[in-house]
Each structure stands twice: as C-alpha cells, then as structure tokens.
Model the fold of this input.
Amino acid sequence: MKKIQVLIFSIILFTLLLILTLQTNAQHLSWELTVSPGESIQRAINNAAPNSTIFIEPGVYFEESYPIIVNKTVTLIGRNADATIIDGQLAERQIFLVKSSGVRILNLTIQNTTTNELAGAAGIDLSDARNVEVSYCKIKNCVNGIRLKNSSQCRIVRNELRNNYLSGIYLRQSSSRNSIVENIISNNRNGIWVADTTCIENRIYHNNFLENQINKGGVGVGGIWHNGYPSGGNYWNDHNGSDKHWGPNQDKLGSDGICDESYGGDLDRYPFMAPLNFFAVGRWNNVEYYVSIASNHTILKVHFDPNEASISYNVQGSPGIGFCRVAVSKQILWVERGHQWIVLVNHTSVNPFVLDQYDEYTYLYFTYNHGTGATSIEIIGTKAIPEFKKEIILMLLILLSGATTLARIRDKPKTFNSVNFLLEAESKL
Done:
C-alpha cells in the first residue's frame, strides 16, 4: 500500500514540475538584456540577438548620437513609463529610427528633438517597417511624436502624444493598414496629419483628440475613423454634437453616448460625447482586459471584483447631470439569459440602456445626478471570469484525480462524485 501511495505522489509531483518547467521555458524563449542609466541603448540593440527583449531601467538616458537605430526584431520595454526617459537633447534627427519589422517599443517617455520643423525629426520614426508595435509610451516635445513612412500593419496603441511641434502622428508615403487605437493626442499643432492620399485603410478609433490646433490635417483621408456601431469612433474636443438618438444610423429615440452628428463631414460617423478612459482590470490566460468608460465626469478608483461579478468606481466633477457609457468584455463579466444588469448610483438602482447583441462587448449607458462630493457607481452582472487561473485549476484536477485513485485503492466508498466535479471544472477553463 505504501508503494502505491509513493507512486501516486511521485506522479503528481512530476506533473506539477513538468507544468512549471513548460511555463518557465515559454517565458524564456528569447534572450533578455537589461540597460541601466549611463549605459547605451544603441549598444544593447547592437549586441542583442534577433527576438531579444531589452529591459530599460528607470532613469534619464542620453545617447552619444541620434537616431537610436533599431534594425533587427527586438522588444524594448521600459520598467516604468514615467521614470524611464529617453531624451533627444534637441537632436536634429529622430530619437528612435525603426527599420526592421516585428519591433515592439513599450513603456517609455521619449522627449526633446529639435524645434526645427524642417528637420523632420520624430520621437519614433517607422521607416519601411511592418508589424511594429508602439504602446504605453509618452512622447512629447518632438517635431512629430510618431512618424510612419511606407510602414504598414503597425499598432500604435495607448500612447500619450502631447506638445509636439508639428504632429502627434504623421502618416506619409503609403503607410497603410495600420491600427491607431486608444491614444491620447493633445496639444499638438496637428493631432494626426495624413500627408499623402496613398495612406489608406488605416483603422483610427477610440482616440481622444484634445486641444490640438488642428485635430486632423493633411490631404489624405487615411482610412476608417471609427470601429462601427456600437463600438464607436473617437472623441473630438472641437465637435459640438447632440445625443438624442441611438443605433447604426442614429435614428432611434434615446441616448447612447455617441453624437448623432458625424465629425468632419462623414470622417467619423460615431464620435463620442465625452473623452474615453481605459482601465486595466486584470490578466487572464495572458490576455490583458480593459474596461472603457466615456463620461462627462472624472473617473476614479475603478475596481473589478470577479467574486461579486461587479465593476465599481467613483466619479467627481461639476455638480449636475452626469452620464457614463461603459464597455465591458463579455469574456470577463456578463449576465445569464433571463437576468438583467444592475447599475447602482450611490447604492440606488438606475435603469441602464444596454446594448449587448452586437459584438464581444456589452455597452451600458446611464445618467445620474451628481452633487458636490464623489458619486459611487457599481455595475453588477451575474457571472464573471473565474479568479483561479487555468494552471491552478489543472493542478487541482491532478491532485483530485490522485486522491480519488488512492481512495479507490483503499476500497473506501465515497459519496463525493468526482466525475461531475471534473466536468464542471473543465467547463470553466
């Protein structure tokens, strides 16, 4: 009997070690390098093997010369976007020049090129590149924040592009089929400049255009400036629209947080009534999930509770009628058939307008009376993504299988139905 117990224990231990080994190997398929203040980012790129990840520690970095040329497929990640600063020292050229495909640049502050607009300098310049990602960067005080020249299928996502002398984002020479999504583009001379009519089929949506001298400029249209209905387009601070209707044609009576009137002729068919805010609420199966909220008030303290199947937050701002338009992924929070969403404002129920038949998101729109203090809001579904990760559930299943086998070997009858438990647990994976 003891030999059987030892055998079962050994199998369980071996399986757990195998899972941990596979996870560790998956996380280290590429080389990792670290750059610290006083060291050269260019030297690290030169020394890196293709597909390496270069972590840049917090500090202010000054290169001996610019641009920093990224001519191989690498990932550059700052440890802290606010504290990891690449300073161009008024360089007449780009700070980063990306000439390879598959590059990723994340979590950096990039600042201070020359103020000479004829120099064509940029914080990040993508030249003849494909499948490049620039995310979570703060780019300011450059001629152009991000410039794309003949570059396609790139992702410009969740960046802040502020106080750039010519453009926040500049598209030229057949830069097409790029995604420019969820960025804050503010206080630039031009928010996005489309220099050529050959820049086509770009997807530009869920961005906030704030206090630019010109929000969209240039001779080209650039692509599609919305993501359909009800996902919506962009927020434009210079667009004064009304919101009395909803629907793909904005012709059904009722508000939905989207302007009834298009922006820029028919450039953006679904402009938002208020700026968009994106809040990370958790990571499951290596996917980061966000909740987006458009509101005429400031959003604070967003919290997603899987155990309570709820999202809660506070709003602050000027007293009066407020509104929120909330988009939540059906992968993390939903209501079962026959049930309804519950929205509580200061613990009092309000009736939300719900759109959940269109895509993988549920959209809720509601209004409230806001006083002088903070107003609390809670959105409650009936089901949420399990808090346990898939790997933990698998381990529990292995342990349960071993315990069940051991019990059977000892011929001790059990009333617990392990088969039903396994089926139920597997259905949640």
In short: The first helix runs from residue 2 to 27. Helices lie at 2-27, 41-47, 390-409, 418-427. Residues 20-29, 411-429 have pLDDT under 50 and may be disordered.
